[in-house]
């Protein structure tokens, strides 16, 4: 195994991929190079990038990190990221994965005092490797994701199993077809203008810095690949609710919802969700729907399973100034 290498720009990462330029494209959305590059460009442009790369045989491991402050690193992820993890290519076996992670942990320990990783679905492998590399690690459960596994169900079967209050709401609010519901797999400038207009009238009207540019970049990329599902509820031609979904390897990902708060009482967002779920299940034939991070109460009506998300903080024992923070994190983990 070669010693880990480090890159500080995505141009350097692409050069390092050499004869395998697509290696970081044939992975899930949140591990893809274009996702990481866009997230950094739009949401973390002023934060230095550190990408650590390890190889063993024909396999590779990658860690995409942000250098928030001197000696402190954090996962390249934010509220748009459903999950974060080291990215592996070349199908390494478990022993090779652990070896590459351990090597990267040793490499990072030489220059870093503290690292934080969130949101993690499964942290056992990463914690083991960092521990073997000499880091103290603390694991804390923080929030979750809501999932729906279809197991071959059609929409009618799925819908019969929803809570009565949700089915009754859709039936009452949908009488007379008060809204025109459309779902688009191609993005156009006019559709994006409508999306932005709904967002501006939504209770979520303050989008985090860089958020709209990041979402437009995502919508354009997924549109070009045929994976975009951009839904609208309209009244009299005016968009009053919108949802941005994508399809990734048979999984429908719900990225962003918004509706005009002036229409709260008429539930255009709920009616649009009904149409979006039906389209994903009966037309896209997805195997799973993922509602993303956050424990919003309404998600439980639509989904059937919650998985916990984990934060791992790693402290370098040599950095004495980090000991108090390590103790506080350990106490927080103990008291929940």
UniProtKB/TrEMBL annotation:
SUPFAM superfamilies: Acyl-CoA N-acyltransferases (Nat)
InterPro entries: Acyl_CoA_acyltransferase (IPR016181), BioF2-like_GNAT_dom (IPR038740)
Alphabetized Pfam families for the sequence: Acetyltransf_6 (PF13480)
Domain called BioF2-like acetyltransferase: residue spans: 165-299
Gene3D superfamilies xref list: 3.40.630.30
Protein name: GNAT family N-acetyltransferase
Superkingdom, natural source: Bacteria
Organism this protein belongs to: Sphingobium soli
């Amino acid at each position: 195994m070669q010693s880990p290498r480090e890159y500080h720009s995505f141009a350097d990462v692409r050069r390092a991929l050499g004869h395998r330029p697509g290696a970081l494209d044939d992975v899930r959305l949140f591990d893809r190079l274009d996702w990481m590059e866009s997230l950094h460009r739009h949401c973390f442009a002023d934060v230095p990038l550190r990408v650590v790369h390890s190889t063993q045989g024909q396999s590779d491991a990658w860690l995409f990190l942000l250098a928030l402050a001197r000696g402190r690193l954090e996962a390249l992820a934010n509220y748009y990221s459903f999950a974060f993890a080291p990215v592996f290519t070349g199908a390494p076996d478990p022993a090779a994965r652990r070896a590459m992670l351990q090597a990267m942990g040793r490499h990072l320990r030489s220059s870093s005092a503290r690292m934080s990783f969130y949101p993690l679905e499964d942290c056992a492998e990463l914690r083991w490797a960092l521990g073997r590399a000499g880091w103290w690690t603390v694991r804390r459960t923080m929030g979750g994701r809501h999932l729906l596994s279809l197991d071959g169900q059609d929409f009618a079967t799925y819908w019969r199993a929803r809570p009565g209050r949700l089915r009754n709401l859709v039936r009452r609010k949908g009488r007379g077809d008060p809204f025109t519901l459309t779902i688009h797999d191609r993005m156009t400038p006019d559709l994006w203008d409508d999306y932005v207009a709904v967002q501006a009238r939504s209770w979520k009207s303050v989008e985090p810095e860089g958020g709209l540019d990041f979402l437009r970049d995502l919508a354009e990329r997924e549109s070009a690949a045929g994976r975009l599902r951009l839904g609208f509820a309209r009244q009299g031609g005016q968009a009053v609710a919108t949802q941005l979904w994508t399809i990734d390897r048979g999984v429908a990902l719900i990225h962003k919802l918004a509706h005009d708060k002036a229409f709260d009482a008429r539930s255009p967002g709920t009616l649009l969700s009904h149409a979006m779920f039906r389209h994903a299940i009966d037309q896209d034939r997805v195997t799973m729907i993922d509602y993303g991070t956050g424990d919003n109460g309404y998600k439980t009506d639509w989904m059937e399973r919650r998985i916990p998300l984990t934060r791992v903080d790693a402290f370098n024992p040599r950095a004495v100034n980090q000991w108090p923070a390590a103790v506080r994190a350990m106490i927080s983990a103990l008291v929940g």
